[in-house]
Design a protein that fits this description.
about 190 residues, alpha/beta, Rossmann fold, seven-stranded mixed sheet, two-stranded antiparallel sheet, about 30% strand
Length: about 190
Amino acid sequence: MSESQKPEQRLLQVAKERKALLFGEFKLSAGGISPYYFDGRLLTLDPEGAYLTAECFLPILKQCGAEAIAGPTLGADPIVAAVAVMSYLKKFPVSALIVRKEAKFHGGMRAVEGPLRKGMRVAVVDDTCTSGASLFHAIDAVEAEGCEVVKVLSIMDRMAGGSEECTRRGYDFQSILTADVEGNISIAP
């Protein structure tokens, strides 16, 4: 990354270089066809991609006063881990939490794994926001534990209704990248 290049710009470059962002015709898990496909795990499991993702999210977490970052397994697992490590190195520790698809039926029977405590200020994250279903699942699980959701984040906002629904429900949503229906990807404002 050059000195003049912002981490968001380099993150978009890395997404293309690592083929986490592909163009063509793709069927989406949320339904429908898209002119692009974003595989957040290819980006966030890459060393530089993980670093840049954390570098982009950490200032946002500082600004909203988040004590933890949580997200749905599997898409958010590398994000929350990278942010936790980076936050420690930058002397602003933010704990990582992982939201299970469903609560365990043995052991601690938890729906949210990690150093969670009631009243915690939590940012909820996922690699992509389409309908927002995974984000809302994580939000519900975190709030059920008595925590306050202070921010909702994604790397890529597909601008397909999920971010608008977050805002409609009263959550402060922010993404690093946005995409329009034609597949034009840009740095979020």
